[in-house]
Amino acid sequence: MIGFGTARHALEKQIRSLGLEDHIILAGKKPHKEIPLWINACDFFVLPSLNEGNPTVLFESLGCGKPFVGTKVGGVPEIITSEVYGLLVNPADPNDLKEKILMALDRTWDREAILAYAEQFTWENIAKKIQDVYTQVYAK
What we know:
Elements: H1 8-17, H2 35-41, E1 45-47, H3 56-63, E2 68-71, H4 76-79, E3 86-89, H5 94-106, H6 111-118, H7 123-139
Parallel strand pairs: 1-2, 2-3
């Protein structure tokens, strides 16, 4: 787990009580430039937010060819439109989160399909789409 928040000490205690010290790493806060290294080291990315817009890490995950498991909040459902790219979880539902994580662990993901899908979200492609809108508006 990457990041640091108020739940860290409770998570450490829970990890110890469940005997999961050899399976879970609380890596703490990492510089942004290291995030792709961590994402590429994972099998899939999980973001169980209660509130989001369009989280940058969603696009970073897809851009690394990693499936995304995240809550149905903000713009996440507009991006994860198929189970080819990830799984959606009901917010604040730990049982649904557990089920989707187990599903993600059992699945063989198509990295190439995820990378192809993510291509539309590169800064270059987004800038081109914006330029196209301005060109159409200007032409009228």
